Batch of 4 targets.
Target 1
Amino acid sequence: MTKRLQSITSKLPAVVALCLLILLWQFLCQSGAVPAYMLPSPVQVIKALVTDLPTILEHASVTLQEAFYGLCIGVGLAFVMATLMDHFQILNKALYPILIITQTIPTIAIAPLLVLWMGFYMAPKITLVVITTFFPITVGLLDGYKSVDKDSIDLMRAMGATKIQIFFHVKFPTALPQFFSGLKISASYAVVGAVISEWLGGFEGLGVYMTRVSKAYAFDKMFAVIIFIVIISLLLMGAVNLIKTLSLPWVRVEKKEALE
Amino acid sequence: MVLLKAEHITKKYSGRTIIKDINIELHKGELISLLGVSGSGKTTLFHVLSGLTTPEEGRVLLNGEDITSRPGQISYMLQKDLLFPHKKIIDNTALPLVLHGMSKKEARKKAQTYFEDFGLEGTEYQYPSQLSGGMRQRAALLRTYLSSNGVALLDEPFSALDTITKTAIHRWYLEVMQHIELSTIFITHDIDEAILLSDRIYILNGKPGEIRDEIIIKEKKPRAEDFYLTDEFLAYKREIIAKL
């Protein structure tokens, strides 16, 4: 009971700060300090969200598909890439700088190129999501593999373990917490990446809908989509956290032991 | 009967000789200690004996068979307990059996039969973080035992434990060793521990490290708890200090 109370109390400052920010926003709009055509009030945004929800959900199903496919491919690629880079040092030396460079290129700059190369359907959007999501996971896994105690590897070798056995019994499980940290970041990037790519071309999706409402100067609807994206991203991050908690029971036990 | 034999072992790292012309023997059921100052090459010798590294000269024989540079033939417990945090105690201890091809179910079943001897009953489905330092050492020792061909190398296995836990685990270790007949070489910096546990003590000293002396502890095992206080014990201790 005390721990539950502590957990609630620790989250309280963030909740209070968020509520105050929304109240300030509402006050600024209501008092006329900011014109309504520039910044709709939170109440207007919520109204727009409720009214537009069926349309938003329709577009969101496309965006979520792109994000999901992109994230899955990104995870797969990251796993293969990080594992190969960890195993072959020459590959690590050759590819790590390129990986870093790919992250310095703004997503918004690549998106039009991808649309030109791949057309207006899902392919360029998924590709952009892959590009944005696979880096945090690759780096997370690489760091995780590197964090393995050298003595643990020696112990496994002394027990006669093969390289594959060392990987599956020690390296991969040790890297899992870092993998999930990367996945959490990537999950939020996935939706944002899909939306950005939709801005630059397409027929459906939250990004396409955003460009339409912005051209109509319907800022309340635009904010409604933004809030919807934030909610989806938070839900995805929450889902990753839940999978992490279920997949890493020993981490949960360690935390509990540390608290006692 | 000689179980493990190291003949003329010389090992170099980056051109520097770490150990030179080491000859040691381990007989069945025996417990021998390697005592020496830091940097005298004790851990290097264990790396050679366990097959983790290849010596420039010499060979290691197990029951007469050459096992030089062949890991997995004898078990090796490193300085830390190195229990894997993501595996339950039963799976940590059963790991060597799984690595050698046994199914997880069978390996768990076999490991389980030793839990009582090793004082680990009730910890099977706990994670290492839930165990005390002494219990973790016991679990690591069981894993070492299950990966052995009757021979275990223990590198300062009790150094991280507090004095009370260490005394308790010494007593337990001597009892369990009698029962399971594991022949052991162990590294220690603790002269008292070496005298209490060993049948023989090798003094490894110098740079490069060489076997300088061999001391035989004649008292029968398991030794009494007050062995520390006897004149014989102090005589051994004086002799070792003089040779270190």
Target 2
Amino acid sequence: MNMSWIENRFEENVIITSVDLALNWCRKSSIWPMTFGLACCAIEMMSTAMSRFDLDRFGAGVFRATPRQADLMIVSGTVTKKMAPVLVTLYEQMPSPKWVLAMGNCAISGGPFVFEGQYNVIEGVDLLVPVDVYVPGCPPRPEALLEGFLKLEEKITGKRRFPGPESRW
Amino acid sequence: MVERIKAELGATLKETPVGEADYRERGYHLFAEVASADLLNVARFFDERGFYLAALICVDYKEYLELVYIFSNHASLCKVKITLKIDPAKPVAPTISTVFDCAYWHEREIREFFGVSFDGHPNMTYLFLHEGIDFYPLRKEKIPVSDEDKKALGAFRPGEGEDTFFVNLGPQHPSTHGVLRVVLKMDGEYIEDAQPVLGYLHRMHEKMAENRSYLQFLPNTGRMDYLGPMAFNLGYVTAVERLCGIPVPDRANYVRVILTELNRLSSHLMWLGAYLADLGALTPFLFVFDDREEINDILEPVTGSRLTYCYFRFGGLYNDVDDAFVAGTRAFIERLRSRFSLYEKLVGGNVIFTNRTRGIGVITKERARKQAVSGPVLRGAGIPMDIRKSEPCAAYGEMDFDVPVGTRGDALDMYQVRIREMENALNIIEQALARLPEGPIMTEKAPRKLKPPKGDLYHTVETPRGELGIYIVSDESDKPYRMKWRVPSFSNLMIFPELAKGNLLADAVAILGSLDLVIPEIDR
């Protein structure tokens, strides 16, 4: 970012940044998820928010029961055809900017409930709403969900909160 | 008891013979095939003798449809299977919802999955399926939904009321513990009528069972009831073992008991936290998750997962427990015992909580029987029935524990019963650990490919939520011909509408919480 014309014009304790950077920094530091437990994964989502894993460390522990106050929808479980219109309504009720995290294999692709002749499961929530982060697992461990949050932060701000482990592959 | 019922039933039915089945193989003592004209009389016969309708099952045998009624008794072990054959081209049967209230829900379920219509049923609307379904899912052949049924398909739509309005509780609501929807007809702050709408998490488990081999279906059991998957695992493996006659080594039986009870603890702890969170107290939620994580720490190295366990195998276990597991479990027992006094101070002795729950959602013994509730809800209502006692599987028969019962049958009693059950579970684990035998964990006699002999079986186990009944029909192939799951939460939910009637909206949440529902298990 080129800000040379403005640099060094103020005293030392003033930080200059773009509006976007500042807003995104705020956004990533307070991702409020919606209380939206669908199936088994919801229990692991609760575990993530509770005593041991403490999602509050990342400013994301404020679970809102109404979509109108939420930034993030964690689709934690199987989406059935009966649930699909409800899910889309909930997504539409969320104020922008909003994000969707598909938690678990069911939300990603239908998971173990896809078989020939199946009549009731949506094979992936991305067929209904745009998904930002996919967290695989059946169910994913709380650490995996936390990593999903870090990935979402990375998507919002463009850089990671702290360096992750180096890939060995 | 069995002899007496056989004689009396024979006298009532006159021409139709009453057969006696091998209980260890079939899971029921008596069976009889009745004509549809006799059905209502038979239902009244069992009603007069204090039986409850444990399950209502439909099986499609292609040439005919068969309705299976399992009647069971709280006081002594006596199970009777009554079957009724109906014509698949014009499937009509008389309703017994006038005698047993719980049949109201079972019959609605059978209507949408098999297309059987019940004469005299007051409300034959769809309960589970969505509007895009144009065939009967569990029929063996694809049969289009009839025009008459299509009218009932639009799920539940509230009618016009005078001076009343409707409130939708769910499907996205924090205190329904999942995606349950209850349509409440309100008169001001008071509930006039409640109508559950299910199927938001219908995952076709019963359909899947017909498409998979016995072993392939095993992981599904953990996903049906995600809070008590061990008990569902246990129910399924013991049912198949019973069907095929596979022996289980002693050590495996003891380990099964320990793990199922540990899982029961984690399920009840979760209930405790979630229930109090519903009532507005979030602190216990944080405490119980602390304990739950301790249980997960014990179970994870052994089972390999944190939540949807798939640990038992036909004829044994997947993995042996080690000394670290035994030591960890002992330490956990000590820890949880000391925590109970904390919970007592925080919750049980809390005036706000006791005043909030005392006297609401009262279930009488008679209503509990008619609606076929089970588990802690039944014991809270004052009936000392526990399948771990009456039909012990694994090593439960060798354990010494009592069955706690409530006196008032209200929501507070349900709480106290569950707390005492947790203490009991600790005692059971302690006994099983002390007696844990050495030896193999897997029988050598387990066949690689399971092909159970022809026949059916109704097998029950006690899950954290109550009676789980598994009805398997085998046709000698490696896949079940039909597998029906009689799930406890479904039966426990049935009593909710009458409990909610006349109560405040805020109390409905307290009542719903006291039933301890798990939605994927209701919807299957």
Target 3
Amino acid sequence: MFSELATLLSTTLTFFSIYVMLSLSLNLEYGFTGIPNFGKVFFFSLGAYVAGTFVPRIMHILFRIDEPLCSAVASTQRILVGLQEPITLMIIFIASLIFSGIVGAIIGYMLSYPSLKLRGDYLAISLLIVAELSRVFVRTEPNIVCGTDGIGGIPNPFISVGDTLIKEVLYSILSGVIAYLSYFFIQRIVNSPYGRVIKSIRDDELASQLLGKDVKRFKAEVLMFASSISAVAGCLYAFFIGFVYPDDFIIVWTMYSWLMLLLGGLANNKGVVVGALVMVIIDRGLRRIPSYWLSLPFDVSYLRGTIFMILLLLIIMYKPRGIFPEKPLDTPARQVFEAHIKKVVNLKKESPHQ
Amino acid sequence: MEFLQAVISSIVTGSLYALMAYGLTITLGSIRIYNWAYAEYVTISAYVTAVLSSRYFINVLLCFPISLASAILVSILVDELVYKPLTKRGATIIQLMLAGIAAGLLVRYIVYIFASINNVVIIKAAYASRTILVYDTLVITDLDVVAILVTLLMMVTFHFILLKTLLGKQIRAMWDNFELARLSGVKVYMVRRFVCVLVGIPAGIIGSLWSIYSTVTPTTGWGLLLPAFAAVIVGGLVSIPGAIVGGYLLGIGENLLMLIAYRVFNISLAYKPLIMLLIMLIALFIRAEVIPFKPIAVNIYRFIFKRGEA
């Protein structure tokens, strides 16, 4: 019972951190800068593809595995090698995290270049189509992640610990730390002069251009940061599942990140974290239903999708800026100002009859 | 012969894409919505044709109007329940787009649930297409002919409706300036319903053609929508001739260019979606004036035709 609960909690924590990274990066893009990114899943999948192409190939070179890359034998061998060589595996894991971040940044920057010259909706639809057509491409091309079969045997970096439970707990803690780092990073960006510039771009692009800000550069940089964070999330996901399968990365991921963003509220990082928490609880909870209470005649993921989409439609209709939208910033100047106002109010209260 | 076959299949797929892009452009132009739920209209009509003809043994020709009606019904329902309330609340185009994708996915999940309850997740209409012309290795089926003819017929009809009727005039007025049209006495929401019907018709036709041509799954419509949207981007979002040209261009790219790349450079046939992506990205680059297409074209034109005048 205890071990089951611990497994459930650690899985939830891992997914929570992946969701947090996705929704926070979307918040940085749309909530703070006003770039509608409908290709979130593309940048997410980039990280997973980096893990799926880079890790097995480098392991085959380093440990001299002769089997063909896609075979089941090779994937078991990769896991066995991972059991024997924990330190090398850890180095590969960290390297692929960094590498996926870099790849995400480069491709995000490249894609932003043509699209930011056009209207905002151009960027949205072109990113969406790039995401979906690239998935179709990766699925049909056998040399990237083995086409339709997907590539398996990406060993969990803590696999040498032995116990499955401790392995999962360690991995979830690690991903939680990475998610916290990205939260910290985004929070720092947003509460700095840089953040004020991107917010001004969101509110009035022309005005910030007139004040001498290079709007396109700022937007491209924001897209770069955000796609790098979501690529890292994809890499974490690939190592957690241990398997990269192109048809995992459908548009549903994008919609889920939008749902988390709106559950939290635009331009409110704490709210978005709460939104991701709500989402992950519903998600994991619904996955447990069939085994405990009732048996459905269809896959429970369809039910989950239906519930989430109805929720999203309701939020767009009744709370289009999210449930807890942005509040005025708590800057030192505002603190001084508010303290002053309080003092004035208190003075008035103390002497009602002047 | 292989080349000719590729030409014919590129015309067929091109006309399907163009027809879909046509529907998308009309919604985008007149009511300003990126209609991502359009994919599910196609899926629904494909399912209706496939299930009716293979489970209830109804003739395909009889299924055709029923599937058309179902696509129109879904189109109107989505508009009434999702798009219209949002527009009345003054939603931005991004919110409308998000709502469109969400509504489409909702319909898709409901289709998934019904299909898996009734065990029809993968299904095909009970109709074997006949070959009407065989010459060497060139094979033309009746489906190819029907697809091309129906597309041409639809385009002519749409052209007639848009240019010659009062309804078309009202739609064009909305296209140019929504507020002005409303103030001039166009019953905007009534016209909007007609637009939904106009959009539902090509979706129904494509869906039932596809269910005869190939197997139907709940993601069928989505798979067809992506190239259609790429065609809309190639054509420049709100231009109908542009959408048609974009559709045929993508059809040619998918079949003809792919064949040439396969034969000449020995590139794997898996790169079909990549070619579509490339065409779309090049169009995007030209539109963003990263590639200075216009000055080059103008210079070439001047060089050829007006050399003497300068």
Target 4
Amino acid sequence: MKAMLKTFVAVASLILLASCAANRGTTDATGTEAATEAATPPSGAPGAYQGYDARGATGTYGYDKSGGVTGQGGGGPNASASGRVVYFDYDSAEVRADGRTIVEANARYLVANPSAATVLEGHTDERGSREYNIGLGERRAEAVRRQMAALGVAPQQMRTVSYGEERPAVAGHDEASYTQNRRVEITY
Amino acid sequence: MKFFARIMLLLSLLLGMSTLYAEEDLTIEITKGVERALPIAIVPFGLQSSVSEDVAAIISQDLRRSGRFEPLSPQSYPDRPSEFSQINFANWRALQVDHVVVGQVKPSAGGRYTVQFQLAGVFQSNQLLGMSFDVKSNMLRQVAHQISDLIYEKLTGERGAFTTRIAYITASQQTSGGTYSLVVADADGYNPQVVLRSSQPLMSPSWSPDGSKLAYVSFENRRAQIVVQDVYSGSRQTVAAFPGINGAPSWSPDGRRLAVTLSKDGNPEIYIYNLGGGEPVRLTNSKAINTEPVWSPDGSSIVFTSDRGGSPQLYRVGLNGGQPQRLTFDGDYNARPVFSPDGRYLAMVHRKGGRFYIAVMDMQNRQLRVLTEGGLDESPSFAPNGRMIIYATSQGGREILAAVSVDGRVRQSLGLRDSNVREPVWSPYNR
């Protein structure tokens, strides 16, 4: 009996040795280090996006060509950050009256500067599933795009991208934060 | 000499334990009764040299996490046998433990280790399993998981999932300006390896059916694109970079196609993309958001999220198109579906009273069962044996991973040290 057991253990060892060897090969092939290096970073990704805050109100281009738009309420790349963000109600893609003013100011800038282009970034708050929120963010960006088109902005001047809940403006988990995160950023 | 060996054993145990807790803060919370969990004793392995991994502790944690076993605390053990012949069964019967696991870790040639273990039935005093492994020291965790798989399968009749992996996304901060990483780790959260880092969001990882590739969404260059990356070589291929949304990739069971969400034709719709080439073929057509497609395990249909009825609900459509059939009617928000590997269950994100839960629908009777406590629970993913669901949740404002058994009986959180951890996807079995 004991001899049989030993044989069994020996055979089992052999089988498992073989499977271990296979496993080890896999793990080495994983070359997790090498894989990390090969894949990091994705080309063009680091710093590809400068962030709109870095190009704040002191920028130098295009401002006086913007058809007389001045001050905080003005649109375009030189407007204050708040002049380029349109906020939305929960679960809504309807541009509110306060947002309408901002859309109009930026539309005036784009009409006056046909060579300028904007990326309309749609965002949601963190609630709900992530890919569905990508859809909601795009709905918001599209709502702004449609209004701008109606105000005379050429199609080739506008592009939309939805980040869903992936790039919140503020990190909080309360209604005050959510209100700031449901937005479209008009970026240049 | 014997005394010295004992000191070494104690030392290595202590060291092993402390590194374990320093590296990972794995907390296991059993939420409901464990009356069906099998009592088992994993006796600390006889260690004849200092090794970094406490094999018995790893096996214990694996089995406990499964919810099917209740490993006894080593403090209650009557003695410390390290092989079958040393087990005094009368002592273990008195503890009412059904099974005892004993083993040893011995150094062998070339810096390698021989790990042997035996699984014994206490009431019949018999050996149920006995095996030996010869491995490098960096494979000791893997061997422990393999032993867990063997014990699990022997005693439950089902395949274990302890040697599988999880992929997930981390974000170093929640607002922009941080770093996003795609990470692959062991199923217990150990051994995390970053396979991709980006300053732009990464999301929606999906394993190929053979476990060799991940499809995901990357926002590099401020555009959404779907990328397929080889997990081993790191080589990447962009498969969709159309204007608008390129999202929610999901592999077909045969690994040859991806179901994706594209808005290139004006609205988020489901498309089937053949990885062998060709244009994506559109599957849905409505004015609503259609997204988060998943394949039924038999490959014949796609289940997806759509708000065509006013609120997001799950729908099923055949691969040949046709009118999608609504599947969910319970609650005003059901999204992010995922099938259990056998197709019996559909897990989803379910909203009730403003809170988000993980729920499963039994596809046989269409009954919906809520599994989690709720909050911001999202991104459910089944273990390849279908017994557990890993998901993302939040705790104290931090995003963490958690797992729940399909019957809702066992819930646990996997505390990974830093960052916000999200979108876990459990790998298939390696082919």
